[in-house]
Amino acid sequence: MPITDPELIKIVEKRVFEVSICRRCGAKNPLNAKKCRRCRGTDLRPKKKELAKFKAQ
Ligand SMILES: [Zn+2]
């Protein structure tokens, strides 16, 4: 589904792409999280992707 509204794109970027992924269990966490909310592990990696695949459609 194409997203054309610039405001909506900002919201989607924040909601979907500004998350940290736990390397241990793969759970999504807030970007500023220090610990995984599922397994309490501290090995989190940021997930920040472009919206290119949405814009291209
Ligand atoms: Zn975890």
Characterise the protein shown here:
The protein is an alpha+beta fold. The chain has one domain (6-46): Irregular (ZNF265 like). It is 30% helix and 19% strand. The chain has a three-stranded antiparallel β-sheet. The longest helix has 12 residues, at 6-17. 7% of the residues are buried. The structure holds zinc ion (ZN).
CATH topology (level 3) name: ZNF265 like
* Major beta sheet, strand line-up: 2-1-3
CATH class type: Few Secondary Structures
Strand content: 15-25%
* Total strands: 3
Number of domains: 1
- SSE pattern: HEEEH
Low-confidence stretches: none
CATH architecture: Irregular
| Tertiary shape | elongated
Q: What's the main sheet like?
A: 3 strands, antiparallel
Percentage of residues assigned to helices? 25-40%
Mean pLDDT: 82
Question: Over the alpha carbons, how many angstroms does the gyration radius reach?
Answer: 13 Å
Task: Specify the number of helices.
Answer: 2
Q: Helices and strands: which structural class?
A: alpha+beta
- What ligands are attached or bound here? zinc ion
What gap, in angstroms, lies between the N and C termini? 7 Å
GO molecular function, one term: structural constituent of ribosome
GO cellular component, one term: ribonucleoprotein complex
Organism: Caldisphaera lagunensis (strain DSM 15908 / JCM 11604 / ANMR 0165 / IC-154)
Domain Large ribosomal subunit protein eL40: 3-51
Structure summary:
With 57 residues, the protein is α+β, with helices and mostly antiparallel strands. Helices cover 30% and strands 19% of the residues.
